[in-house]
Amino acid sequence: MSSIAARSWQGPSAPERLALLREAKSIAIVGASDKPSRASYFVATYLQSSTRYRLYFVNPVVTEILGQPTYASLADLPESPDIVDVFRKDDDLPGVLAEAIAAKAKTLWLQLGSWHEGVAADAEAAGLTVVMDRCVKIEHARFHGGLHLAGFDTGVISSRRQVLA
């Protein structure tokens, strides 16, 4: 269901997403990659360096990402994650949801471009909060003043666009 016209589900509002991020203490990144060119690596790097979250990288193929051990599945985590941030293709989402429910996660967060109304309905029926087609890094940065056109905070407050050398 990637067509915008087919979208009927309504997710949490901006204040509700801010509350989710403020209340969360742990984030599991399902589909985390050790490849710097992947979006999940960029998000993990940002979260590791700019937030207080306990991060868990879920990837059954590699043993370490950004100096932290990886976990083969959500069932292997040492705690129930507050947010399960998903970087997987749509066909994998029902299985990820089943793992998130079993792991007693609170929120299922599907990254930019990921939209699955069936999974959202099933997740909400199981008591999870659902966020779809949004990036945890972008949302965190926008709520905490770290969003810039280049994807990072320049530390400069100006109404003029900065020219980066």
Automatic annotation (TrEMBL):
Q: Specify the domain of life of the species encoding this protein.
A: Bacteria
Q: Which InterPro entries match?
A: CoA-bd (IPR003781), NAD(P)-bd_dom_sf (IPR036291)
The CoA-binding domain covers 20-114
Q: Which Pfam family would be a valid example here?
A: CoA_binding_2
**SUPFAM superfamilies for the chain:** NAD(P)-binding Rossmann-fold domains (SSF51735)
Which PANTHER family did the record assign?
A: COA-BINDING DOMAIN-CONTAINING PROTEIN, CYTOPLASMIC PROTEIN-RELATED
Q: What is this protein called?
A: CoA-binding domain-containing protein
